[in-house]
Amino acid sequence: MPIIVNLDVMMAKRKISLNELSGKIDITPANLSILKTGKAKAIRFSTLEAICKELNCQPGDILEYQDEENTI
What we know:
Elements: E1 3-5, H1 7-13, H2 18-25, H3 29-36, H4 45-55, H5 59-62, E2 63-65
Antiparallel strand pairs: 1-2
């Protein structure tokens, strides 16, 4: 998939655990884990907004587009 999720990188930079972040943004740890590992097929803007607000970052810090042709 050409969309790369860098949530784990931002969480490491902010020194916040998955359980701590999930509690602060009111999402289950299981759903946050699915997003963090890049297995999610979609994300609500309200969830993205909550993550960005809590991590003090921009959506582009979490989501990245990578052309499939350039990943070989």
